[in-house]
Amino acid sequence: DLVGILCLVSAAAALDFKYHHAEELEKYLKGVHAAFPSFTHLHSIGRSVEGRDLWVLVLGRFPTHHKIGIPEFKYVANMHGDETVGREILLHLIDFLVTSYRRDPVITRLLNNTRIHIMPTMNPDGFEATKVPDCYYTQGRYNKNGEDLNRNFPDAFETNNASIQPETRAVMNWIKNETFVLSANLHGGALVASYTFDNGNSATGSSKGYSKSPDDDVFIHLAKTYSSNHASMYKGTGCDNRQSFPEGITNGYSWYQLEGGMQDYNYVWGQCFEITLELSCCKYPPEDQLEKFWRDNKVALIEYIKQVHLGVKGQVTDKNGNPIPNAIVEAKGRPHICPYRTNEQGEYFLLLLPGTYVINATVPGFKSMLKTVEIPDNTGNFSALKQDFSFSEVSTSIRPRVSSCPKTPLYQDLTRASAAVKPTLHVLVLMTAMLVIFK
């Protein structure tokens, strides 16, 4: 009945600027899904140590499942339980998206061409444990087992002996089960957009105080997209006199080294470009500041999602047009230490800035195919450039078997392998990696 629907809509829309504890957060998300069932999907990807659901609201034209050609995007907040601004602004982002869909042409196109996953809290136990909101560090940073979730992922550089927590495991499985292309995780305690790598060694040039990924130019662009669309982050003033961040961005390692971080894990093992957004100098600010935080971040949050449409995407198929999963597809000169591969539908997505690139598709055991592409800036059209590959000599009966990329510190092996050659170490390492990948 109409009255019931109107009540639902008003329940979903009545989101005030205050902190929402576990029950209220769950009620709000369920209300949104009930009010907008055709373009939202609510599910829990796992449970915290204390048994709280890790809720994810998915928004898009096809919210329940991946659709070929539509990239997957995610925002994750509150992995440190006492860093609370991200948790609340993601609820307001949901509110903004559902109320703007089919009314605002830009948001409508964004949701029709992107599947957006929003996880307001990765550490609900830590949030509930933070009894006295504080601008500085509290015990609520950690999960119930006293573990820092942003030091808990497998690390590409060092053996990370942390025992994997339920919250971390849930996110790792989530990354494995979706084709995420772009992501950001929202933190507090500083005002800066930080990007991969957070850890490093000589293979990534970290001796120079900067740990550089093969896609450094894309990461700088992503971080600047956020900072330049934020009300003040781009000014780079930081939170005290000791810190300043030119243009409001920083390489993670340059700022401070950490192992077991979520953004490096996404990039190396998830084929997903993730940056870390530090959104407030105060970790747990008073409620009356939340509305300003939302206003300061609103445009940046939307502009950042649009970047999932950078670069090139396509399908790799056999002679009968069937998809080939696990084919390696990478841009020449940017080998990933864990080669980027097609998903079950034979799809690949590569984030690249506008320019000319050679895309190399390899089905193990067959000759590689190279295609030169001219990539425009397509973010305004909400679709990356499309470039498919068809392998006429491959038939579906031959499915490339592939062992998943080992969770060992991959970059450790690179430095060991070429320890004898000191001066041009990381150039050689990358060349070796390229040869292996492009053979």
UniProtKB/TrEMBL annotation:
<feature type="domain" description="Peptidase M14">
    <location>
        <begin position="18"/>
        <end position="308"/>
    </location>
</feature>
<feature type="active site" description="Proton donor/acceptor">
    <location>
        <position position="278"/>
    </location>
</feature>
<dbReference type="InterPro" id="IPR050753">
    <property type="entry name" value="Peptidase_M14_domain"/>
</dbReference>
<dbReference type="GO" id="GO:0005615">
    <property type="term" value="C:extracellular space"/>
</dbReference>
<dbReference type="InterPro" id="IPR008969">
    <property type="entry name" value="CarboxyPept-like_regulatory"/>
</dbReference>
<dbReference type="InterPro" id="IPR033842">
    <property type="entry name" value="CPM_N"/>
</dbReference>
<dbReference type="GO" id="GO:0006518">
    <property type="term" value="P:peptide metabolic process"/>
</dbReference>
<keyword id="KW-0121">Carboxypeptidase</keyword>
<dbReference type="Pfam" id="PF00246">
    <property type="entry name" value="Peptidase_M14"/>
</dbReference>
<dbReference type="InterPro" id="IPR000834">
    <property type="entry name" value="Peptidase_M14"/>
</dbReference>
<protein>
    <submittedName>
        <fullName>CBPM Carboxypeptidase</fullName>
    </submittedName>
</protein>
<dbReference type="GO" id="GO:0008270">
    <property type="term" value="F:zinc ion binding"/>
</dbReference>
<keyword id="KW-0325">Glycoprotein</keyword>
<dbReference type="GO" id="GO:0016485">
    <property type="term" value="P:protein processing"/>
</dbReference>
<dbReference type="GO" id="GO:0004181">
    <property type="term" value="F:metallocarboxypeptidase activity"/>
</dbReference>
<dbReference type="InterPro" id="IPR057246">
    <property type="entry name" value="CARBOXYPEPT_ZN_1"/>
</dbReference>
<keyword id="KW-0378">Hydrolase</keyword>
<dbReference type="Pfam" id="PF13620">
    <property type="entry name" value="CarboxypepD_reg"/>
</dbReference>
<comment type="similarity">
    <text>Belongs to the peptidase M14 family.</text>
</comment>
<keyword id="KW-0645">Protease</keyword>
